[in-house]
Structures are given as C-alpha cells and as structure tokens.
Design brief:
alpha+beta; BirA Bifunctional Protein, domain 2; SH3 type barrels; 5-stranded antiparallel sheet; about 25% helix; globular; binds biotin
C-alpha cells in the first residue's frame, strides 16, 4: 500500500482525492483534526500503515500493527443539523460492509451464515454484516470499527472526522491482543486470501461518496433503509439496550429514516435508539 497505489485505484470524484499517507502516525483521526484546522477540503483522507495511538470508542485503544490493516480517517464538512451527524456513521458502515463483501467473495462459509436474507448471495460468498451503528462483523466477529468525531462551530457542525479501522490481512488470530482474540477477526482469516488494501480503500470511498451525496440531497436515510436492514446482524433478534435511563431487552426491527435502531419491547412498543447515546448488545455472544 502506498499513496500512489491508492490514488491509482480511486474512482470517486472527491472522496480521498486530497490524500495524506503515513507509514506511521499516532492516530489518523488526530491527523484529520489537524488538517481540518488548516482548512483542508471535504473528502480529505488520511491513511496510515501503522498507528502508535489508535483510538477506539469509549476511550479504548485500537490495535494498529503495521503492514496488514487499514487505518483511515475522512474529513467531511456537511451543512446539516448536528443531530443528524450520526447518520454519517450509518452510511460509512453500509459502504464498508458492501465493499468488504464484494472483495471477499470466493470462500464457502461452513454454517451458511453468509446467505443474505431475501437475496441470492450465492453459496461461495462471504457475507459481512453490520452491527448497528459502528461495527462490521463477519461470521459473528468484528472486522471493522468506526469512530466518528464532530467538531462544533457556533452551534453548527464545523467538521466531522470519520475514522475507520479494518482488520484486513492479519493471518494469525494470536496477533490480536488477548482481550479481543475471541471477538475480533480479519478478512483474510475469514475468506482465506489476501486482500488488496488500496483497492478496498478505493471501493469504500466510491461507495461512501455515492451514498453521502444521496443523503445530502434527501436529508435522511430512507433511500438505503432496505439495503441496510438486509445487512443488519441483529434484525429480528433479541438485543439488550444499555440505556443510561434504564436498560431493556427487545427485538431489533431495523432502522428508521434517521438511522436510529428500532427496538420492539414485549409490550409491543417500538423504541427509537439513538446512536452515540446508548449501546446495544446481542443477547448471545458479541453480536
Ligand atoms: C471502535 O470500534 O471502537 C472504533 C475504532 C476506530 C479505529 C479507527 S483506525 C483509524 C482511525 N484512527 C483512530 O485512532 N481510530 C480510527
């Protein structure tokens, strides 16, 4: 992977075209924060081969060894209401999930979990799914996390940094830190072959650009609701909503046009769960 190789593969109009590549940096989200301050344009992308202080959500560390994964952050300057910003994470999750599925086709998954609901995904396609709102999972294990950070300016959005970490060509489970060894995986471990990281970045940029533009003109995510729900790992399954106001259990029923998760409680009531405010867990295992 190199700056030239990524530029060579890009098909997007502006996402990723202003490209900063680092062999090593502390965190690509920090690089984008800095570039934003210097007036970098929307679509500016920072990619690193290795991070020395990769950050995950909830103050966690994001394991970022060199030579195998994708660590990238995208700068956006959307003219939208700050309360609509979580939809950007939802769009990125869809873009990554579809790009990953496209690039990992080729290996039959033993238990059939790769078959898409209502679609003929084919027997030999590895199916990535979305754990709303920030994670992509393959065969029940996490391959990607998204960390979206917003910078406010006078009550409006100044800029948004969308950080994406994808475990790509890690060939040994033992390389994962012990605490995530059971819940994390890489694309290579799941599909059996090496993935071209630059091509995957290009595919994510192309898909994200298309969906982001649709979102900006539509104002919500109604246009992608159906596709998203087909990929939603929790759909029609029991989830536990860790709401600080009181935890509850219900059945995940998809998302609404605002990107919120819909959870039906036993009394038949449909709750809207807002990303960023609460976390949602599957009742069985990580998803
Ligand atoms: C999570 O699941 O906790 C989110 C992980 C986000 C990791 C990415 S890697 C690129 C960018 N830079 C960071 O320091 N974090 C994000």
């Amino acid at each position: 992977m190199s700056r030239d190789e990524i530029l060579d593969r890009l098909r997007s109009e502006y996402m990723g075209r202003s490209l900063y590549y680092y062999e090593e940096t502390d965190s690509t989200n920090a690089r984008i924060r800095e570039l934003a301050g210097e007036g970098a344009p929307t679509g500016t992308l920072a990619v690193a081969d290795m991070q020395t202080a990769g950050r995950g959500r909830r103050g966690r560390e994001w394991s970022s060894p060199p030579g195998m994964n994708i660590y990238m952050s995208l700068l956006l300057r959307p003219d939208i209401d700050p309360s609509d910003a979580p939809m950007i994470t939802v769009i990125m999750a869809l873009a990554v999930c579809e790009a990953v599925t496209e690039m990992t086709g080729g290996k039959k998954v033993p238990d059939g979990t790769n078959v898409l609901r209502g679609m003929n995904a084919g027997d030999d396609m590895l199916q990535a799914r979305i754990k709303w709102p920030n994670d992509i999972v393959v065969n029940g294990r996490k391959v990607c996390g998204i960390l979206t950070e917003m910078n406010m300016d006078d009550g409006r959005i100044g800029d948004v940094t969308v950080g994406v970490g994808i475990n790509v060509n890690q060939g040994e489970r033992e390389l994962f830190p012990e605490e995530i060894r059971d819940t994390a995986t890489s694309l290579k471990l799941e599909c059996g072959h090496t993935i071209d990281r630059s091509e995957l970045i290009a595919s994510v940029m192309e898909r994200f650009e298309t969906e982001y533009e649709r979102f900006l003109s539509a104002g919500d995510l109604g246009f992608m609701k159906e596709r998203y729900e087909q990929l939603l790992v929790s759909l029609d399954r029991e989830v536990r909503v860790l709401d600080p106001q009181g935890e509850y259990t219900g059945i995940s029923r998809g998302i609404d046009a605002g990107g919120e998760l819909l959870v039906e409680t036993p009394d038949g009531e449909l709750h809207r769960v807002y990303a960023g405010e609460v976390s949602v867990r599957g009742l069985y295992g990580y998803v």
